[in-house]
Amino acid sequence: MFLYVVSHVVNWLIELYILAICVSALLSWFPNAYHSRFGQWLNGIVAPYINIFERFIPPIFGLDFSPMIAIFVLVILENLLNRLFIML
Predict the structure, then answer these.
(1) Please, what sign has the CA dihedral across residues 15, 10, 74, 88?
(2) Stretch 45-51: mean pLDDT, rounded?
(3) Smallest Cα–Cα separation from 16: which of 77, 76, 74?
(4) Closest to 11 in 3D by CA, of 88, 87, 79
(5) Are residues 54 and 64 in contact, defined by beta-carbon separation less than 8 angstroms?
(6) What is the pLDDT of residue 7?
(7) Where are the alpha helices (DSSP H) in the chain?
(8) Would the pLDDT of 52 be above 80?
(9) Which burial class, exposed, middle or buried, applies to 51 when counting CB atoms under 10 A from its CB (0-12, 13-18, 19+)?
Protein backbone atom coordinates (compact mmCIF):
# COMPACT_ATOMS: atom_id res chain seq x y z
CA MET A 1 0.00 0.00 0.00
CA PHE A 2 2.81 2.40 0.88
CA LEU A 3 4.62 1.83 -2.42
CA TYR A 4 1.35 2.34 -4.27
CA VAL A 5 0.92 5.76 -2.70
CA VAL A 6 4.58 6.67 -3.28
CA SER A 7 4.38 5.66 -6.94
CA HIS A 8 1.28 7.80 -7.48
CA VAL A 9 2.84 10.80 -5.75
CA VAL A 10 6.01 10.46 -7.84
CA ASN A 11 3.95 10.16 -11.04
CA TRP A 12 1.91 13.20 -10.07
CA LEU A 13 5.05 15.26 -9.37
CA ILE A 14 6.63 14.28 -12.68
CA GLU A 15 3.43 15.16 -14.57
CA LEU A 16 3.26 18.50 -12.75
CA TYR A 17 6.87 19.25 -13.70
CA ILE A 18 6.15 18.35 -17.33
CA LEU A 19 3.24 20.80 -17.23
CA ALA A 20 5.56 23.46 -15.80
CA ILE A 21 8.00 22.90 -18.68
CA CYS A 22 5.17 23.25 -21.21
CA VAL A 23 3.91 26.47 -19.63
CA SER A 24 7.46 27.82 -19.54
CA ALA A 25 7.87 27.04 -23.25
CA LEU A 26 4.59 28.79 -24.01
CA LEU A 27 5.69 31.85 -22.03
CA SER A 28 8.63 32.21 -24.40
CA TRP A 29 6.17 33.14 -27.17
CA PHE A 30 4.98 36.26 -25.35
CA PRO A 31 7.22 39.29 -24.97
CA ASN A 32 8.14 40.22 -21.41
CA ALA A 33 6.29 37.18 -19.97
CA TYR A 34 9.45 36.04 -18.17
CA HIS A 35 9.68 39.43 -16.45
CA SER A 36 6.43 38.92 -14.53
CA ARG A 37 6.48 37.41 -11.04
CA PHE A 38 4.96 34.20 -12.30
CA GLY A 39 7.43 34.01 -15.19
CA GLN A 40 10.41 34.54 -12.89
CA TRP A 41 9.11 31.97 -10.40
CA LEU A 42 8.44 29.39 -13.11
CA ASN A 43 11.77 30.06 -14.79
CA GLY A 44 13.52 29.55 -11.46
CA ILE A 45 11.94 26.10 -11.17
CA VAL A 46 12.29 24.92 -14.77
CA ALA A 47 15.51 26.58 -15.99
CA PRO A 48 18.04 24.50 -14.01
CA TYR A 49 16.69 21.28 -15.53
CA ILE A 50 16.33 22.71 -19.05
CA ASN A 51 19.83 24.20 -18.95
CA ILE A 52 21.28 20.68 -18.72
CA PHE A 53 19.90 19.93 -22.18
CA GLU A 54 20.64 23.37 -23.64
CA ARG A 55 24.36 22.70 -23.13
CA PHE A 56 24.24 19.67 -25.42
CA ILE A 57 21.47 20.55 -27.88
CA PRO A 58 22.02 23.78 -29.83
CA PRO A 59 19.03 25.61 -31.32
CA ILE A 60 18.21 24.41 -34.82
CA PHE A 61 17.06 27.19 -37.17
CA GLY A 62 16.36 29.32 -34.10
CA LEU A 63 14.16 26.71 -32.43
CA ASP A 64 15.12 25.37 -29.02
CA PHE A 65 14.30 21.68 -28.76
CA SER A 66 15.69 21.23 -25.25
CA PRO A 67 12.24 21.40 -23.54
CA MET A 68 11.01 18.56 -25.75
CA ILE A 69 14.05 16.44 -24.97
CA ALA A 70 13.70 17.27 -21.26
CA ILE A 71 10.06 16.13 -21.31
CA PHE A 72 11.05 12.97 -23.20
CA VAL A 73 13.63 12.14 -20.51
CA LEU A 74 11.04 12.72 -17.76
CA VAL A 75 8.56 10.41 -19.49
CA ILE A 76 11.22 7.69 -19.75
CA LEU A 77 12.10 8.19 -16.08
CA GLU A 78 8.43 7.97 -15.13
CA ASN A 79 8.03 4.71 -17.05
CA LEU A 80 11.16 3.23 -15.47
CA LEU A 81 9.98 4.18 -12.00
CA ASN A 82 6.55 2.66 -12.67
CA ARG A 83 8.16 -0.60 -13.72
CA LEU A 84 10.38 -0.54 -10.64
CA PHE A 85 7.38 -0.03 -8.34
CA ILE A 86 5.52 -2.85 -10.08
CA MET A 87 8.45 -5.23 -9.51
CA LEU A 88 8.60 -4.34 -5.81
Answers:
(1) negative
(2) 95
(3) 74
(4) 79
(5) yes
(6) 87
(7) 2-27, 37-54, 66-87
(8) yes
(9) exposed
31: left (phi over 0), alpha (psi -120 to 50) or beta: beta
- Confirm if 51 and 63 have CB atoms less than 8 A apart: no
DSSP type of residue 63: B
* pTM for the predicted model, two decimal places: 0.89
Distance CA 60, CA 73 (A): 19
Alpha carbons 76 and 43: distance in angstroms, whole number: 23
60 phi/psi in degrees, rounded to 5? -110, 115
Q: Are 72 and 22 in contact (CB under 8 A)?
A: no
Instruction: Please provide the average confidence, as pLDDT, over all residues in the chain.
Output: 91
- Indicate the residue type of 87: M
Query: Between vectors from CA 77 to CA 53 and to CA 24, what angle results, nearest 5°?
Result: 45
